[in-house]
Design goal:
Organism: Lichenibacterium ramalinae
Family: Belongs to the class-III pyridoxal-phosphate-dependent aminotransferase family.
Largest sheet: 7 strands, mixed
Bound molecules: 4'-deoxy-4'-aminopyridoxal-5'-phosphate
Keywords: Aminotransferase, Pyridoxal phosphate, Transferase
Distance between the termini: 36 Å
Helix content: 25-40%
Mean pLDDT: 93
Strand order of the largest sheet: 4-10-9-8-7-5-6
GO biological process, one term: biotin biosynthetic process
Strand content: 15-25%
CATH class of the largest domain: Alpha Beta
Number of strands: 15
InterPro entries: Aminotrans_3, Aminotrans_3_PPA_site, PyrdxlP-dep_Trfase, PyrdxlP-dep_Trfase_major, PyrdxlP-dep_Trfase_small
Shape: globular
């Protein structure tokens, strides 16, 4: 493909400053663990694209499935019509989901999945005659995409402050991370339960009869890899049960093997009422998202007392044939190569390699869980985020490594196919880089 001369003329990558034009990081190809630049330089993908290409890039079975599907059936409406692969994907997701979560709503992204789940929560309460339950509870530092629902329950100030009053009736739990108390927060069950008890306070304040749902990422990804303190998710579940509140896990990042299991719910032993998924469901190859729920919720939403309440929800591209074909192939690769098991087996190797970077200049803290890592860098006093930006840019240019940054935190989420040797290479590249940052 031709590269345009003026890189800002019609589009810009999402970057907080205008540096892309001066400093383009262009990608033209990918295979397995690597991206390739226009010059053919191989760059190791330390971020699985955007936490999505879990099976690695351009895997043959996935490519072949998409090609075959494109030649056979390009599009089928999910309104009044069906195509076989949509039913297969739903059944495969139901088999992977924990507990009795077995009915699927299809969307096309994580943001749509979240909006779908929030709508389901409120409508479900309406059709079961509890229509006053409309309040939603998110969490500080939660990321749930960029739809109005997602930024309302989300807890990132800069993502929400310019967008008016957002959804009414939303509260936020406190986030669960404190660097100073990290050993304490991740280690002590009482502490996790104590933090989750804040939900009881919010519920009491508004009365449980007004609260529809609580939504959290089991592991907050985009705001810096914050695993749940022990006992936290369990206590959220118990409080939701006590008050008849639906618990939604946003597993857009944590789903499909990222934490060594199909869903983080399994890892943490807590079954929510809904799971939002996206990203890894197709290994990033075609957009797809969705929500998996249990049958009573599904039935209430889809068939709830007709003529009493009319419901409408669904997308033109829900269960798109190309996405379904990609998903079936990706799920096959995960299963055939036991990639969730591989992620579990690599977790200690990964943790040791990345924690080995402790003590390097400017490294304040390191967290790892599953095949995820965050490295917090000290901010430059005059330019918050500049140090991580330098790390990201130089990693790409000098170390042939793609990393992701948020603020002054580096996030690493390699494809699940990463080998032990490659884990060592990621750590070596980072060690060199971090030793020479400004
Ligand atoms: N929820 C979570 C937890 C996410 O991490 C993301 C994306 N990073 C989203 C929702 C939104 O997904 P999308 O960008 O596909 O809309």
């Amino acid at each position: 493909t031709e590269i345009p001369n003026d890189l800002e003329a019609f589009w810009m990558p999402f970057t907080p400053n205008r540096s892309f034009k001066k400093n383009p990081r262009m990608i033209t190809r990918a295979k397995d663990m690597f991206y390739y630049t226009p010059e053919g330089r191989a760059v190791m993908d330390g971020t699985a694209g955007l936490w999505c290409t879990n099976a690695g890039h351009n895997r043959e079975p996935i490519v072949a499935a998409i090609q075959a599907q494109a030649a056979e059936l390009d599009y089928a409406p999910a309104f009044q019509f069906g195509h076989p692969k949509a039913f297969s994907v739903a059944s495969r997701i139901a088999a992977l989901a924990p507990g009795d979560l077995d009915h699927v709503f299809f969307a096309n992204s994580g943001s749509e999945a979240v909006d779908t789940a929030l709508k389901i929560a409120i409508a479900y309460n309406n059709v079961r005659g509890q229509g006053t339950r409309t309040r939603l509870i998110g969490r500080e530092r939660g990321y749930h995409g960029v739809g109005f629902g997602g930024i309302s329950v989300g807890g990132i100030v800069s993502n929400r402050k310019q967008f008016g009053t957002l959804l009414a009736g939303v509260d936020h739990l406190p986030h669960t991370y404190s660097r100073e108390h990290q050993a304490f927060t991740v280690g002590e069950p009482e502490w996790g339960a104590h933090l989750a008890d804040e939900l009881e306070r919010i519920v009491t304040l508004h009365d449980a009869s007004t609260v529809a749902a609580v939504i959290v990422e089991p592991m907050a990804g985009s705001t810096g890899v914050l695993p749940p303190p022990k006992g936290y998710l369990q206590r959220l579940r118990a409080i939701c049960d006590k008050h008849g509140i639906l618990l939604i896990f946003d597993e857009v990042i944590s789903g499909f093997g990222r934490l060594g299991f199909a869903f983080a719910a399994e890892r943490y032993g807590v079954v929510p009422d809904m799971i939002c998924f996206a990203k890894g469901v197709t290994s990033g190859a075609v957009p797809m998202g969705g929500v998996v729920v249990r049958k009573p919720v599904y039935d209430a939403f889809m068939h709830g007392p007709e003529h009493v309440i009319e419901l409408f929800h669904g997308y033109t591209y829900s269960a798109h044939p190309l996405a379904c074909a990609a998903s079936l192939a990706a799920l096959d690769v995960y299963r055939d190569e036991d990639l969730f098991g591989h992620a579990r087996r690599m977790e200690p190797v990964w943790a040791e390699a990345i924690h080995g970077l402790r003590g390097l200049p400017n490294v304040l803290d390191i967290r790892t869980v599953g095949l995820v890592a965050a490295i917090d860098l000290a901010s430059r006093p005059d330019a918050v985020g500049a140090r991580a930006y330098e790390a990201m840019d130089r990693a790409f240019r000098e170390a042939d490594l793609m990393i992701r940054i948020t603020g002054d935190t580096i996030a690493l989420t390699p494809p699940l196919i990463i080998s032990e040797t490659q884990i060592g290479e990621v750590a070596d590249k980072l060690r060199k880089l971090l030793s020479t940052l400004h």
